[in-house]
Design goal:
With 343 residues, the chain is an alpha/beta fold. The protein folds into two domains: 172 residues, no CATH class; 162 residues, no CATH class. Helices cover 33% and strands 26% of the residues. Helix 1 packs across helix 2. The longest helix has 23 residues. The mean pLDDT is 93.
Length: 343
């Protein structure tokens, strides 16, 4: 597994609000880090380094406290702070107005209009300013300012670009962050046998395989027991017996059988997709969503948002009906699964 990590390159950093949030311990840490910058460092470079120190300290704070994503904040309707990668609509007026409102496009099903209010001059990065004017994906740490009816107003502490970097040197990688964290079922060492089979052209046989049986099949492959479902679980299957490129990982699975044999939409996942919210609460290195049919883009995007939270990035994996059938075929479990589903 490549030794890389998710980095936020900031172009907006609200120093005062960050210090207020982190209080004395955080202030001491930031002050100590800034003091180690060489006096010979050019002023422009020192400003960049200071912004990165503030950003890194804030992300560590969010990680330690388990700060929610924007989607969690919206669905659970609790918390004052969030950290996540957010898609935003274009804001061309950022070049013209001293204070602007940028509208977010949340992945969660919500009737809230979510907006960020900020002072344009605080955007110190020209590249960030240009991209905010055009819209796109940005890493945010922001706090709730006010809620007026169905309008949620947020004030950013940090806005930046998410990218992959070498874990030691922080040198930028050309790998897109979402590509790095998105893995496939055959990437797990224990499921590598699936690589030897072509994806099936169709997956009708998955209609006859119950969810509990597919979970039992996972248990057979991994040689471990699979507990019976109960109403309060955060995931359907949690295992620490998987490896990615030789590195042991803990994976949490959300499984969906043929009770609704149709493409998976957000509505398959509880009210407003709250099953993905619960899955994200698991102490897992990999979040897996499996379905007996196709998986639609809104589900994929929502899982990506939860998995690639800048303060707690994790791998994510989607296993649709064809991938599920190929996995069963690779371990000669298809006929067993169909027969076991009749019991």
């Amino acid at each position: 597994m490549r030794d890389q990590k998710l980095i936020v390159d900031p172009g907006f950093v609200h120093h005062r609000k960050i210090l207020t949030l982190l209080r004395e311990p955080g202030e001491e840490l930031i002050t100590s880090s800034i003091s180690r910058i060489s006096p010979a460092t050019p002023a422009w470079q020192k400003d960049v380094l200071i912004d990165r120190i503030y950003t890194r300290s804030l992300l560590e704070f969010c990680s330690a406290l388990g700060v929610n994503t924007l989607e969690q904040l919206l669905l659970e309707q609790r918390g004052r702070l969030f950290c996540s990668i957010v898609e935003c609509k274009p804001c061309p007026e950022i070049y013209e107005k001293p204070r602007v409102t940028i509208e977010a496009i949340p992945r969660a099903n919500t009737d809230y209009k979510v907006v960020f209010e900020l002072t344009s001059s605080r955007v110190t990065g020209d590249t960030l300013r240009a991209h905010l004017s055009e819209g796109g994906e940005f890493a945010f740490v922001a706090e709730v300012f006010q809620q007026v009816r169905k309008r949620l107003v947020l004030h950013p502490l940090v806005i930046g670009f998410p990218y992959m970097a070498d874990a030691k040197t922080e040198e930028m990688s050309w790998t897109k962050y979402s590509d790095f964290y998105n893995v496939h079922i055959e990437d797990f060492d224990e499921f590598a046998a699936a690589k030897d089979l072509e994806l099936p052209d169709e997956f009708k046989r998955m209609r006859d395989i119950k969810e509990r049986v597919f979970k039992a099949a996972l248990g057979k492959i991994l040689h471990e027991s699979t507990p019976t479902d109960w109403g309060g679980e955060s995931s359907d299957f949690l295992t620490s017996h998987l490896h990615l490129q030789g590195q042991r990982v803990r994976a949490a699975f959300l499984l969906k059988g043929p009770a609704k044999f149709s493409p998976m939409t957000i509505s398959h996942l509880g009210q407003n997709g709250d099953q993905i919210v619960r899955l994200a609460h698991e102490p897992a290195d990999v979040l897996v969503v499996q379905h007996c049919h196709d998986i639609t883009s809104p589900v994929i995007e929502m899982l990506k948002v939860f998995a690639t939270q800048p303060s707690n990035p994790r791998r994510y994996c989607l296993v649709d009906g064809r991938e599920s059938l190929r996995l069963l075929e690779a371990f000669n479990l298809t006929e067993w699964a169909i027969n076991a589903s009749t019991v």
